[in-house]
Specification:
mainly alpha; disordered N terminus
């Protein structure tokens, strides 16, 4: 798995947040869950960069 650093085998930048969220629910994150979370985060970042989405639109 390649990440922002381009090195295989390392978790994506959002992994610490993913582990934190999983710890709150007492569920160990799976590789699939981590990849889906990273994809969701990347999609939001891409949309924000293109002006199609604003992080302030997120609800609590």
């Amino acid at each position: 798995m390649a990440t922002d650093s381009g090195r295989a085998g390392h978790l994506p930048a959002c992994a610490p947040a993913a582990y934190s969220q999983a710890a709150e629910t007492a569920v160990e994150p799976t590789r699939t869950w981590l990849l889906e979370t990273a994809d969701d985060h990347q999609a939001m970042a891409d949309a924000a960069r293109l002006g199609d989405y604003h992080y302030t639109d997120l609800e609590d």
